[in-house]
Amino acid sequence: MPYDPRLVSEGGNCGIDDVFSRNAEKGKFRVVGVDTFDGGDWVEGEFYTLEEARKHIAEKTKGQQMLKMYIYDSNGNPLGSAGSF
């Protein structure tokens, strides 16, 4: 699907805060992936420590193009990212 910045509910392919929340469960860290080619996004997983989440995004984005991953806390605050456009 070509990039469409609108929310999924509006016919686009941006799901964050529409289909899923950026907020992790209390005490965890949520990783959200974004395919920067088509704009699709997803919950990659939840981790018990920030270190685990950072390690995961570093491994998953290493050598990849057009893939970004972001880490959020339980309040939806961004704590880090990896990858490239």
Unreliable sequence segments: none
Overall pLDDT metric: 95
| Major sheet description | 4 strands, antiparallel
- Percent of residues in helices comes to 10-25%
Order of secondary-structure elements: EEHEE
- Strand order in space, largest sheet: 2-1-3-4
* Number of domain units: 1
Broad structural category: alpha+beta
Overall 3D form: flat
Individual helix count: 1
How much of the polypeptide forms β-strand, as a percent range?
25-35%
How large, in whole angstroms, is the Cα Rg?
13 Å
The N- and C-terminal alpha carbons lie at a distance of 17 Å
Number of strands: 4
Structural notes for this entry:
The protein has one domain. The chain is 14% helix and 32% strand. The protein is built from one helix and four strands; from the N terminus they run E-E-H-E-E. It has a four-stranded antiparallel sheet, covered by helices on one side. The longest helix is centred in the middle third of the chain and has 12 residues. It is flat.
